[in-house]
Every structure is written in structure tokens, then in C-alpha cells.
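I am still getting used to C-alpha cells and would like to learn alongside you. Please make up or recall a protein chain and show it to me in full. Would you write everything just below, so we can both look at the same thing?
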Amino acid sequence: MSQTSTIGRYQVVHLLGEGAMGNVFKAQDPAIKRTVAIKTIKLDATRNEKDAHEFLQRFRLEAQISGTLHHPNIVSIFDVGEENGTPYIAMEYVEGQTLSALIYQDPRPSFPDLVQILFQIAQALDFAHGKGIVHRDLKPSNIMVQDDGTAKIMDFGIAKHADSHLTQTGVFLGTPSYSSPEQVREGQVDHRSDNFSFAILTHEALTGYLPFPGKSISGILYKIANEEPTMANNIHLLPIDGGLFRRLFQKALAKDPDQRYQTSTEFIKDLVGALRLAKQDQERVNAFSQLSGPAYSPTFSMQKNLQRSEFEMAQGTEILEKTVKINQKQGRKRAPVGGAHQADSGAPPNRGTLMTLFLILVLVVLGGAAWKNGLFDILMNEVPQLDSVKDITKGKGETTPPEKDPTIPPETPAVVDINLLLKTEPAGAAAKLDGVAIGTTPLSFQIKANAGTVKTLAVELAGYEPMLQQLTMSKEMASELVLTLKARRFTHAIVTQPEGAEVVIDGQVIGKTPLDHSFEQGRRYRVRFRSPGYYDRSFRYTEGESEASLLDYNLKKRPPPGTVKVKTLMEDLVLSSGDDQAKGTRISLAEGKHRVTLRSERYFYQQTLDVTVVAGQTAELETPILITIPKIDFIGDYVKVKIDGNFVKTKGKVDTTPLVNLKIAAGTHQFDFIDRNDKIVAQKTIEVNRSEAITVAADQ
């Protein structure tokens, strides 16, 4: 099947993946020009013909059922068929990567991105469960995530039958790490088993750890069936309430299905409620999880403020009484609004006065905000303003400021109540708030104080400068605070015996011993001591972790070198061993084993030998004798000659045949004969051990 160009009516583009149960191909539907994924199933994985027949029936039925799952977060099934006895499914082709690859990439997706992916999976699961369909093999590798963040569940229901024969042999059905206790014990599952698998997937996606880890399948299955989940040890590093996180997962991973969350959406919404994100991220998460409606700004309303306290109503009544008295006094001087002048102050108020009183009552009910905003002045232009009442007992135009009513309490400042996530770089610093220890970073703690209150946050970590941070309480405070600590520097003496060694730190020469040098806490350095006649000393030093005694070192003296001497007639001989090289017949090398190369371009010689060098002694080597070749010729043309890859030259220029009286090191050599077009016309391997002419013709 992997070599075919078509599967059914679909034209195969290439193989996407291959597994024990079947293959997945990228293909084109020529009828509607749609790219699809074709999944084929291997029937030979079944035991016998009866099993194969039953498997095929189940496969078709399950594919039809899965085809009814039309949901934006579930891979759609388009077609089911059979090609040369091999069943296949045509499904939606999803461009992206699996969730299993996504959560372990570097860098990992942001926390809001992960939660958004998980929320999509939860909604798709609940949709399928509403249709009576259970996935049975939910895991990160069965989730595809597109570049725009859209998540899609694959293999819905197919996993049940793709390897259903395994249940007949007692082999576990499903993926061990993501299975539910009822799958492990009984093999009978419903939608709550998927919810259990989803909780495992969620824990892994958010923390990078599985809640039921193990080194063997049997060990994993035993933990799932019998033990409580192991919460990841990095929860305190996550933007989430750790205690609530554990409680949510203990419920989601309960052994008894009745004790779990009955829907995955319910679980993920509770998890969203435990997040401790920055304001912008939290608003984004709330938006896609639909946990909050549109932004709500509290406003005063008639209905709300009719329920004011007795104290507020008493103040309103007092203001009303004062206004009535003022109206009565001024009523003797001018006609009230809307009617004739009232000569007697004890007479009932006229229609205009009643309207005035009604409007004042409305303003009292609406509260002081309307008064301060000038609404009273607009509505009651015939009534003196109470904020600056003319004293009728004084001269005309003289005013007196309103007296403070001692019965009105002072305005209470707003209270700020915030859960603050404190992080330090590096982590592990001891934190104090107003001198009271609150824990070790990273940590989350509650602050409640009046707006404008200044709190002092202090953090300390060994090897780093202590840090103070002033926190001014306000509703605009960020919910996360990250403090970068400044590493302390410590000065140490660097000493060697003998003195005068060159000190190199991180590739830079800083001087010769003895000297003092400053090191930064927690930083790792590469240190080297160099001194002629002594072995180099190279080591790693980390301030705060390494022992300072490393910086006081007795250098080890090198033994005197030995000599390699070569007996030869080759004037241009070059000796080399590693970085050491010498022209001539001698080379000095340190005591020990060396690989020495002898090379002469003039006499076409190169040889590598292993030599043991003893301090103060001389090891002798010898090159082969030189042979004179009286003539090298090529029949039919003048050609150039290469010996062991090097041209024969005369006075520095490439020479052509015939070549006469050529001296060459005895031994086996390869001769290449090259024409004027730089084409090799003959190749010969010749053993040169005596003086005789060499004549060759073009290769036949």
C-alpha cells in the first residue's frame, strides 16, 4: 500500500506516518480538489479470518459513527472504503503539529496558549460524549494543533477497533500512561474514562510531568489502579494557586468515576478559576472560556439607592428641612415658582414649592454625587445653593461657608485586596513584607490594605545583594512581580607554586600569579594556569559552589623532552607530531607515545609511525633509500606525470615526458599520466626498488 499512487479515488501525495496498525498518507480528492489524510488499517494484525471479518464490520460502523461528529475541534471523517482488501478512512487533513511535540518544544507555549488549547479539547470531548461516543485513547499525540492555535482531536472511536483483537489475548487496550482505572481493571469504559484521560493530558501539558509516572507498563497501570496521583514538583513555578491545583486534580483523577468531574469543560473552567495570571492574560483566558461577560462599571440607579441606610436618609431629611425654611423666608419677599405669593409662612406650600420639594427629594435619593456635579443647581435655579448659602442675618452679599456636620463620618479610602505572585531571578530568596517573613520565592500571597498604603517588600538570597521594593497599594497593581537580584562579587587571591604562572580566565589573560581577582556569585568560570616547563592546569570554578582552594595550586613540573632523530638523505624532510613540527632530522617531544609523520615532497615520500619518547633520550628512525629512475616515458604523446598525487616538477614548473634521472623514495607509488586536456590517460601502481626505466602506453 505504501508504494501505490492511488487509494480508492484518492491520489496519494506522500506517506505521512507508518505504524504497527497501519499507515497515514497525504492525498488529494480529484473530484473536489481537496487535500485529505488517508488512514489505512492492516488486517493481517488480526489472528484469524473470523476476527478479520468482525474487525472490518466494527471498523466500518465506528467510522460511520465518527463521521457524525461535526465539530471545529474534531478531525472530520469524509469517507470510508476498501482498497485491495485493506480498509481505509479519508479524513480532514490538518496542517500543524501534535500536542505531544508542542508541549516539549523549547520554548514551551505560554500558559494562556496551553489553557486555550485544553479548553478546545474539553469542549470537543463533551460534544462527542453528548453523541454517545467515547474516544478511549485520548493522549497528546492524538491532538493536532494548527499554527493559529486551533486544536483538533484525531482518531475518535477508531482506536477502539483498530487493535480490538488485543483484548482477546489479554493485552491492554489503550495507552497505559493515559488510561483510567476502569480501563485497567475491567476494560469497560464510558465518557468518564475520557475525562480521566483528559485530566492526565492536562497535567502533563501544564507541568511537563505525568501524574502516574513509571518505568514499566505494569508499574504505570498499577499506580493508575491503586495509587494517588503524584503532583509535579514544579507547581510552585506555575501561575496558579498550588493548593487549589492539587484539589482539582485529585477530584479529576478520582478512582471512582462517580467522584470525578462529569464533564471536561466543568473541570477546565474550575482550573481557569485557579489561575494567577497577569491582568491582560487573565482577561484573555476569561474571554475564551466565557467565564466573564462584558466589562461592567458600577453606576448609581434609582432602584439601588432607594435602599440607602437610615443615616443617609436622615441626612437627606435634614437638608430638605433646611431648604423648606429658606423657601419660607424668601417666600415673603417674592412669589414662589408656579403660583401667587404666600403671605403666611405657615400656609401650605404652593404648586411650585411642591415641585421643588419633589426634585430635592429625588436628589437626596440619588446621593451627593448629583449635588456635587451641579445637577441641583440646574434643576433648582430658583432655590439658593446649599453649598454657599447667603446668611440673611448679615449684610447683603455676605456669605458663610457651610459648616461640617459632625454626624457625617469621613470618607473611607478604598480597600485593595490582591493576590500577588512574587518571583525572583534566581529563585529561592527569603521574602519579608513589612518585616514579617512570608516565604521563599516563587510564592503567592495575599495583600489587603487601603489604597495609597505603602508596603515594604524585602528579599534576601545568599550570594546576592539584598533588595527592597516599595509597593503602593492600588487597584491597578499588577498581580505578578519579578525581581532580578544582583549577584555579589567576592575577591580571592590566585596563587601558584612556583609564582609567575600566567592566569587565563574565560580565554582572557588577566596577569601572572600571585594576584587578586573578583568573581561574581553563581557564575561559572574557566580558569587556566600556564608556565614554561610545567604542565598546564585547567579547571572550572563556580563562585559560591567551588572551593576557593582551587585557586591556590602547586604546578607540576614537566620532565625534560626526548628527541626523535631520523637517518635520511632527504634534504627537505619535515617531521611533525600534533602541533609540533620541525624541518630537518630532529624533533623534540614530551615524554610519552607520539604519532610522528615524515614527509618529503621532493622525493615523493610520506609515512606515519608510532614512537615512544623517553625523557632525555633519543629515539632513531630511518627513511627508505632513494632510487634513481633513468627515464619515465609515455608512448604516443607528451604528458604530465603525478606521483602519489603530486606533479613531477623541474625548477618549480610542471614537467612533461620524457622525464630523466628522477630520484624517488623506494617503495610502492601510484603514477598518473595526464594529457594536455588534464585527462588521465593511464594509471599505474609501481613498486620502485631498483633503478630502471618506466615506459607506459595509454590504458586499453
